[in-house]
Amino acid sequence: MSSGLNVTSQAAVTSLTLDGLAHLSDHRWLFFFVLLAAYLFVLFSDSLVVYVICSQRNLHRPMFIFIAAVLLNSLAASAAVYPKLLSDLASGRRFTEVSHAACLGQAFVLYSLGGSSFVLLAAMSFDRYLSICRPLRYAALVSPAAVAALLLLCWLLPTGLVSGATLLASRVPLCRARLSRVYCDIYSFVSLGCGGGGVAAMLLPVYGLLVSVATVVLPVGFVLFSYGRILLVCLRGSRSFSSKALHTCLPHLLVFLIFSLSTGVELLQRRLHSGGEATAASTLAWFLMVAPTVFNPVIYGLRVKEVFRHVRRLLRCRGAG
Question: Domains plus CATH for the chain?
């Protein structure tokens, strides 16, 4: 009898309910306008910096190409989250119904882009390491073909790995349909499982660990190693050399720290509030989602002087026109 009830409950779960907005409904217009302002700023600033990098031939260098790639990731991730949240807030819905496929599709996009952002930041640290610590070999090692290969690796590796995790998650039978989230993620989706699920359920924890190591742990370790080596070289060099080297690395370090901190706190918050999420936890989830996308173009547009100079010139010309 119990097995029959279990089968019935599994069959009944045909869609998921996201109730992360329920705690914010009393202030939904405040959150709507804050989110709308953030999204418009991200669209304008990211597009502006990417346009400047693409249109200025003197910026067609590896460091700026990687900056453009990181900002394109930010634009894509924003498009996967912001419009749906804005629509839900404007409609006044406390709960959002999504299909299994739509939920896993959003989770796939966000995990793939998040993983590729970490790998891109590792590639940027490698570029800075070679530029500062191996300047005589830099041109030979960081050729256009090498940059293209690195970009493909940064996007295809996380996409391939996350595809496997998403496929395994889709095989897990669900007994519950309510997620205390404002957007979907694979961890929360699988937490609704009944137990069982056969080979997919057994493989998913191990495979998820592999994906985390390949797309987060190893890139973070490589970034720390690269900037550690750069710091040692700067300590041994002249003051002018050290100042210039650290100035070029600072924007990348700031972006890395903000993205890593947001990701780490979001993962911790997700596990601590796997049940009903408090209002403070929901607000924190929003901030962690918005912060990296807003700060990235600010840091790269203001702190990277070559980009800032062209952005200022472009805005002055548009203003004069």
Answer: 2-320 (1.20.1070.10)
